[in-house]
């Protein structure tokens, strides 16, 4: 409605549209979470309640934005995969990032009491966000593998570290003990010194969390002894390996996109088909 | 710590650094606030409690980010001015936008009960954000004027509109009555039909809200009859005209930046001075 | 070598890196070529010599930049396809665009006399350039099809238009005659009125020009009656249909890229492989 | 005219508009000029003819683009300053860069024979380009100072280096002799060993070249003994100090821009003035 001689300042806004037809990953990262987790007494190296709260926030994002098809979370970070054909906000990076960050941050504050009924939230947990485009499904999967390998390496190290510290070492001594050790050495240390089989540690710690709309057969009714089923999608939180092909083969619908025709329609400036009839 | 063959995916992240030495404005806008305000029973055309909550969130942002020097809010939007020399997050747009949006959104959820003790928050209020650079103080001031003129025009229209609707008109009739009318006609309508002097409407509705660190003389002590004062900054919320020069002249420290030397130091890649001695 | 207190100004340069692993198309377009072609007496609607000069400039670009794998030219424009794995100039848009434009523009001036020995070059022909990323081979092919359809539609129209004008019509009359006509109507008009079979028009006019490194069997020697051949690449200029699959199936090596491993190596920040051994 | 189902590919083109109201500097740099200068027998450390050719190309750019207000050249590079209010090509970086590079490169090829009548151009000299925005006149001047200090430091070093090599040193010995020496030491070396007063070296080598439209009083006519003059602009090439204020004070019109009103009109989306009459 408003219109004034000052309106020219709108011309300074710059375009930040993300390349069409690429997978968009928006990752949120906790800001200064080392301090936040100390202030709120999070357990080391993993606080189950804090992770469950993160997962709940991710669900809120998935529920709200239909273009989000997959989420992966570890520690104080969460990655959201937006489908390749997404045209929400004309794919403007600032809009997409701020929407995800806003939903995630507000949910964290709102759901805090559910997960920490005895601990008062001292101040707002905040998250920064970024958006990255991946041109193919194969590179997108490498991105997700990167985060899960990261989860594994960090968790293995942190598990050893806090066990050593718990056993009386100083943090400097624990660091020195682990410096340069391979994964096998760390596993042996856990097993021999602390009687811990690393593979028995809860999967949520070892593999992080995935959130997606899982297609499941649902019994609709039983008619004349015949079971009538229907495919239905439910939002689930799981802790699966997403590096190898198994998960993706079993759930190929997650990254599937429609026909090529659909791709074109999904573009900001849709084509007005009019192929010349006499093309050789 | 982690390092894997998948790490190459980091190379897809694109740089979104904002031009150095320009004023950065980050504006957050309520997402689908028409619905949000209906669900939560906000008063029309202005809900005082909702505006006070917005101001409180803006204060949280100003308190947290020292580079924010001025905030202007109207309705469900808030603009944050970051000083020209800001190098926070290397001026990366996505980081700056997400930080402000995260702080604002989380604060809104956390402080809700303070302002709406009787109304349960049904779902998270979310905000999108954008960052715009302005190369000079003069253009930055035009930006702020643009928002305040917008506030004025919208508020005048909405005040008339809801008075007409309150007096029994349908929304369509009210729209028709106001279509194309000048500011004077609207003011007359308010005065003659509803006995309202527009200028007596609370300034927070007519002018929006500004938040900044106000420098004030503070009495430190009285010694031998002499009053010892000190200049101190306090965060204040006011409803002043920011279009004309008056406010800015009285508070010239708000947009002041240090010497040129300081500007250079504030840059991402600081200069290593070594001017050739024999330059003519 | 130089280093001064002024060097901080380098920090204002902004990053314009193109998304990795996408096809880059750089298109150059003649600037004000309507005037340029009039001043230099180009034939209407197509000047064979001018097109051959354009092709020669495209060859110069292909010869110089090994990442250019395919070129398509029509009228005063030329598109250059850079392979998906290209990391030349770290994929900085400004560098890539300026390199192609510089090579093309300088070649045009240098080779002018070869193609127009009797016409003096009155002033420099100039070209603007742009870079666009396409995330998949399929969309890249749609880009090339778009340009070739454009060539066809424009050429058919222009052929009719200039025949009508040549037969005595004013340009306005010719425009009116052609307004809204289908391709069939235009073909009939050419055939019935001017005895021209559109399909007999030289392919360079109807289909534009492609330039690429063609792999050809070459006889190396004949030994004991046996012909020894070797595959060799030669730069060729052709006028083929590039919309249908035929051409691309026959020359699949043009857009082929190496193994996935190679893709990763081609990235700005190459991965340092170190997959954790105990990953489940 | 053309329009097809492939046209959707236009949607992949990304916006690269430069921030309004900032000074734009486009710098072109010779590509692989070490080799180019060897192939064409340029004199070391400075080839006068090559520099004059560069200046002539810069003049061609200044003549063609009215928004270019100042050019500074040294060695194989040239910087072009576009006025702050420039809206050519809607300030799209790729268009502006390619236009300057195209003009410069084509001119270099066309004008070669004028400056090297006896040397055949072996292959096209090519230039890459970049665009950088500077938000204030003061920072723009620092940019130009940076380039001129660079010219000075490089020229002083190169003059010493080639004199030493000319006197029989190997290039490695010359490098070692100069390593870490201050400007004074270099000047002394030139004076004592080679009897060269550095300040007597031609200014074009020491200070580079500037090209601009110089406002000069011109005698229009002499009437009844009175001389009638008029201010006229002529393109000139000079070799002045542009670091200190002197030059800029004497030619303040070069960087001057019109009134504020003009700034607004120069913006991509001009304002439609309609200030509310009753603003308090």
| Computed CA radius of gyration of chain A, to the nearest angstrom | 23 Å
Mean pLDDT of chain A: 91
CATH architectural arrangement of one domain in chain A: 2-Layer Sandwich
Beta-sheet strand percentage of chain A? 15-25%
Protein name (chains A, B, C, D): tRNA(His) guanylyltransferase
Cofactor (chains A, B, C, D): Mg(2+)
Family (chains A, B, C, D): Belongs to the tRNA(His) guanylyltransferase family.
Organism (chains A, B, C, D): Sphagnum jensenii
Description:
Chains A, B, C, D: This is tRNA(His) guanylyltransferase. Chains A, B, C, D: Its cofactor is Mg(2+). Chains A, B, C, D: Residues 6-135 form the tRNAHis guanylyltransferase catalytic domain. The structure is a homotetramer of 280-residue chains. The first copy, chain A, is of the alpha+beta class and 280 residues long. Chain A is built from nine helices and six strands. In chain A, strands 4-1-3-2-5-6 form a six-stranded antiparallel sheet, sandwiched between helices. Chain A is globular. Chains in contact: A-B, A-C, A-D, B-C, B-D, C-D.
Helix and strand layout, with pairings?
The structure is a homotetramer of 280-residue chains.
Chain A: E1 23-30, H1 33-39, H2 48-64, E2 68-74, E3 77-82, H3 93-115, E4 127-134, H4 137-166, H5 171-178, H6 183-194, H7 203-207, E5 209-223, E6 226-238, H8 245-250, H9 260-265
Note the main attributes of this structure.
homotetramer; 280 residues; alpha+beta; Alpha-Beta Plaits; six-stranded antiparallel sheet; 9 helices; 6 strands; 41% helix; 20% strand; globular; disordered C terminus; tRNAHis_GuaTrfase_Thg1 (chains A, B, C, D)
């Amino acid at each position: 409605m408003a219109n004034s001689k000052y309106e020219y300042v709108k011309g300074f806004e710059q375009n930040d549209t993300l390349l069409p037809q690429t997978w968009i990953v928006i990752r949120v990262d906790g800001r200064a979470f080392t301090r936040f987790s100390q202030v709120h007494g999070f357990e080391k190296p993993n606080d189950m309640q804090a992770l469950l709260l993160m997962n709940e926030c991710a669900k809120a994002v998935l529920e709200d934005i239909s273009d989000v098809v997959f989420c992966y979370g570890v520690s104080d970070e969460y990655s959201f995969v937006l489908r390749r054909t997404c045209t929400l906000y004309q794919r403007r990076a600032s809009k997409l990032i701020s929407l995800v960050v806003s939903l995630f941050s507000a949910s964290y504050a709102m759901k805090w009491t559910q997960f920490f009924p005895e601990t008062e939230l001292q101040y707002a947990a905040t998250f920064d966000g970024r958006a990255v485009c991946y041109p193919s499904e194969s590179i997108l999967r490498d991105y997700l593998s990167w985060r899960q390998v990261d989860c594994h390496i960090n968790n293995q190290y942190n598990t050893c570290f806090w066990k050593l510290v718990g056993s009386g070492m100083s943090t400097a001594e624990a660091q020195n003990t682990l410096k340069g050790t391979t994964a096998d050495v760390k596993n042996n240390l856990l097993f021999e010194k602390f009687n811990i089989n690393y593979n028995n540690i809860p999967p949520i710690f070892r593999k992080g969390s995935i959130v997606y709309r899982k297609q499941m057969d649902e019994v609709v009714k039983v008619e004349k002894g015949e079971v009538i089923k229907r495919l239905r999608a439910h939002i689930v939180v799981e802790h699966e390996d997403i590096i190898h092909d198994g998960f993706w083969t079993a759930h190929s619908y997650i990254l599937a996109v429609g026909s090529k025709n659909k791709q074109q329609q999904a573009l900001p400036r849709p084509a007005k088909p009019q192929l010349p009839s006499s093309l050789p």
